Task: inverse folding
C-alpha cells in the first residue's frame, strides 16, 4: 500500500514537472554504458516486463526524451510497485533533469526497499554531494564501492570524493581498482573480437571445371568451389573496445595527477 501511495504522489509530482520542463542542456551522465546495452541484447527475450520498461526508460533518459522515459517508468511501477530498480531509475531520471529534491525522494524509497544496493547508494551519494551533505555522500559512496565485485564507476566516484577531501592516497587506491576492472573488460572484448575475426567463413560458392586424370584416362568434372573471408566481429564490440580504451586513458591520466598530489602533500 505504501508503494502505491508513493507511486500516486510521484506520478503527480513528475507529471507537473514534465509539463513545465522545456529544456535541459546537459546530457544525462546516467545513460546506460555500452557493455550493459550490449548484454541486454542477449537478455531481452527473457527479461521480465518491469525490467524491459526500466531498460527502455534508461535509453530514453540517455536521449533526453523525458516524457517517453516517464511513461516507461510509470509502466515499470505498475508492473511491480516494489521493484528497487524502478525507484533508482526515477532518481536517475530526476537527477538528469536537475530535479534534485525529487531525485533524493525516489532514491530514499529505493534505499528503504534495499539499503545495501550498490547502485542506489552511488546515485544517492551524488545527490548528497550536490546537497552539501559531505558525510552522507562519502558514507553512501563507500557502501557502493566497498564490496566484493564493485563497479568501476562506483570506485571512480569514491576516488573523486576522497580527492575533494585531499585524501590522495585513498583516491589513488580506488582508481587502481577501477583500472583493474576496466582493463579486464577491455581484455575480454579484445579476446572476443580476436576469436571471431580469426575464423573464416564461406562468402561465395561457384562451379568450376577440373581435369581429372586416373586409370580410366583423362576427363573433365564439374566441382563446387568456394571463396572464404575472415569474419567480422559485431560493430558493438568495436564500440565497446573504443569506449573502454577511452575510459582507461582518462583514469590513467587522473591517476598520474593523484600520485603527483600525494607526493607533494607528504
Result:
Amino acid at each position: 500500500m505504501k508503494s502505491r501511495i508513493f507511486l500516486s504522489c510521484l506520478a503527480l509530482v513528475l507529471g507537473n514537472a514534465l509539463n513545465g520542463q522545456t529544456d535541459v542542456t546537459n546530457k544525462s551522465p546516467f545513460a546506460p554504458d555500452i557493455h550493459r546495452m550490449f548484454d541486454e541484447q542477449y537478455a531481452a527475450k527473457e527479461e521480465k516486463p518491469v525490467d524491459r520498461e526500466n531498460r527502455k526508460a534508461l535509453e530514453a533518459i540517455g536521449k533526453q526524451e523525458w516524457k517517453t522515459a516517464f511513461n516507461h517508468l510509470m509502466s515499470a511501477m505498475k508492473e511491480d510497485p516494489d521493484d528497487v530498480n524502478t525507484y533508482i531509475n526515477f532518481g536517475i531520471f530526476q537527477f538528469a533533469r536537475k530535479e534534485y529534491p525529487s531525485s533524493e525522494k525516489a532514491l530514499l524509497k529505493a534505499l528503504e526497499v534495499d539499503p545495501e544496493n550498490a547502485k542506489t547508494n552511488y546515485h544517492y551519494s551524488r545527490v548528497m554531494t550536490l546537497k552539501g551533505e559531505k558525510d552522507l555522500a562519502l558514507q553512501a559512496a563507500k557502501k557502493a564501492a566497498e564490496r566484493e565485485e564493485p563497479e568501476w564507476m562506483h570506485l571512480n566516484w569514491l576516488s573523486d570524493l576522497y580527492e575533494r577531501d585531499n585524501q590522495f592516497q585513498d583516491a589513488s587506491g580506488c582508481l587502481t581498482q577501477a583500472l583493474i576492472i576496466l582493463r579486464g573488460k577491455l581484455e575480454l572484448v579484445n579476446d572476443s573480437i580476436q576469436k571471431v575475426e580469426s575464423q573464416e567463413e564461406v562468402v561465395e560458392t561457384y562451379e568450376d571445371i577440373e581435369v581429372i586424370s586416373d586409370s580410366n584416362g583423362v576427363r573433365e568434372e564439374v566441382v563446387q568451389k568456394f571463396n572464404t573471408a575472415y569474419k567480422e566481429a559485431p560493430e558493438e564490440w568495436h564500440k565497446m573496445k573504443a569506449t573502454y580504451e577511452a575510459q582507461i586513458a582518462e583514469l590513467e591520466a587522473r591517476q598520474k595527477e593523484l600520485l603527483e598530489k600525494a607526493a607533494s602533500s607528504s
Remarks:
- The chain has eleven helices and two strands.
- The beta strands are 200-214, 217-230.
- The first strand starts at residue 200 and ends at 214.
- Residues 182-265 form one domain.
